[in-house]
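Hello again, I could really use a second opinion on something today. I've dropped the whole record in just underneath, so have a look.
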Amino acid sequence: MSGGDIAGLIAAGVFAVLVLLLAVPIWKLGRVFDELRKTIRTVTDETTPLIEEVTSTVSTTHQQLKTVDGITTNVSDASANISALSSLVAATIGAPLIKVSAFSYAVRSAFAARTVPTRRRRSR
C-alpha cells in the first residue's frame, strides 16, 4: 500500500463518519416532521367540531337577539303609551284641579280678608 492509498482510506473513513454524523440530525428532523404531521391532523380533527359548535352558538345568539329586539320594541311602545296616558290624565284632571285649587284659595283668601277687619274693630 502506498501513501496515496492510505490517505484515500483515511479520507473515506472520515467521509463515512461525517455521513453518519449528518444522518443523525436528518433522522431526528424526519421524526419532528412526523410529529408535526400528527399534530396538524389532530388540530384539524378537533377544529371542525369546534367551528360547528361556534356556528351553533352564533345562531342561537342571533335568535336570542331577535327576541330581545322584540321585547325592546314592545317596551318602547309601552313607554310611549304610558307617556301619552300621563299627558292625557294631566290635561283632563290637571286643569280642573288647578281651577278648583285656585277657587278654594280665593275663597279662603276672601274669608281671611273678611275676618281680619272684624278682629281689628273689636280690639279698638
